[in-house]
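Sample pair:
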Amino acid sequence: MDTTLSVLEMQQLYNRSKPVVWVVRIKHMVEEELVETFGTAFSVSRDGLLLTTAHFFPKTLYGLDVRRLDEPNFQSANVVYEKPKWDVLLLQVIDMNDCQYVGLNSSDSLSVGQTLLHIGHPNNFVGSFLTGKIAFECKGNIEIPTTNLTCKSYTPTALETTPEYRIMGDIWNRHVFVDPRSFTYEKNLHPFVPVIQMYGFICGEGCSGGPVFNFRGEVVGMVAMSANGYEIAIHVAILRETVRLFREQHSDDEDGKRKAIPDPKFQAGDSKKFKAHQADRKERKR
C-alpha cells in the first residue's frame, strides 16, 4: 500500500539510494566528431555489476568509464552483456569487490497512483531526485518475451482488449513507423517487453538507465524513454531476468570474483586510426 513519506524520510531514502547510482560516460563518433555522452546506471551486485539501457550505447566506443554518484573519480568498466530487444545492458566495473548495490523488487504488481522515485541526471542536473506516479496498473503475471517479434511489424491490440500491463508495442508499433528510415533502434525492440507508464517525472537526456524505486528503496523499473507526455520504464521482471541470464552464462573465476570480460559485440575504437583520421581532417580544413 502506498503511503506518504515526510521530507526527512525522503532525504533518508535519497541518502541510502545515492551510493548505488552511477554516472556513465562514453566517447563515440558522431558525424566524424568525437563526443562525450552521459547516462545513468545502478549497481545490482557487490562486484560492480551495473544495469543500464542498451540504446544509449553505440557499437563502437572510444571510451567508457563510470563513477558512483557520491564519489568524484571515474573508473573503468566493460560492457559484459546486452539484450538489445529488451533495451537492457550490463556493465562490469573493473576490479570492484565492495560495491554497494540495490535489490530488485520480487513482486511484479504495481498499482495506479502508486508513488515512485527516481535518481538520474536530466540534462546535466546530476543526482536529481524525482517523484512520479503510476498511470496504468500492472496486475502481475508478467510474461518474459522469448520470440523473435519486433515492434516494426506489431499491430497493437490494447484498444480491443484492455491489457493487464503495458508493453513496448503500445508505444512502438507498425502504425508509428510511417517513415522507414526513422526509429531504427525502436523498430527492433520486442513488442511484448513489459513497461511502466508513469507521470509526474520530468526526465531529460541523461536519465536513461536510471533506477525507479518504491518507498522501500527497491527497484521496480529502469527509466528508458518518454512517450506521449509520459515517462516509460522497463519493468523489473525484465531486469531480474537479464541478471539471471547473465549469471547463468558467466561463471566466477577461481577467486570467486566475476571477470569483466568485454562483450565482443561492442568494439573499442582504434585510437591510432582515430588520431590519424583527426589529423587528416585538420589538414583538409587548412
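Residues 17-101+242-273 form a domain with the Thrombin, subunit H fold (CATH 2.40.10.10).
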